[in-house]
Amino acid sequence: MDKLLSGRRLLVVEDEILVLMMIEDMLGDLGCESVTSAGTTAQAIALIEAQIFDAAMLDMNLDGDDSNTVADALAERGVPFIYSTGNSGRDMREGFSNRAVLRKPFSFDELATRHQARTPSFSLIDECVDQERSGHA
Fold it and tell me: 120 falls in which pLDDT band (50, 70, 90)?
């Protein structure tokens, strides 16, 4: 049986190494083919310019810097993304308020449920499948 994220390539933008390691393990358990990580906005932008990703998880605060430029780069390329943050989420930028926010700390079940749920706000799986059907993947 295929796992939830089988064959997907995800970018995880996270500056806390222990949180990053947890997310990488969880995404691997969900079947991700590849999990690439970045700890700064500069690293994330360089990766987005150099590689193709099916989806991304984006921390809203990277060592005191907001991740708006990363969100813009992902959106410009049509890469679906979800926020992962310990913040309240109230500081989301206009234009991205429809993005789902996975609040830290979160469990494996919360991460899996977010990817399974078909909600108006976001489902990584649904967006990836929709892109494949429309020929944009």
Answer: very low
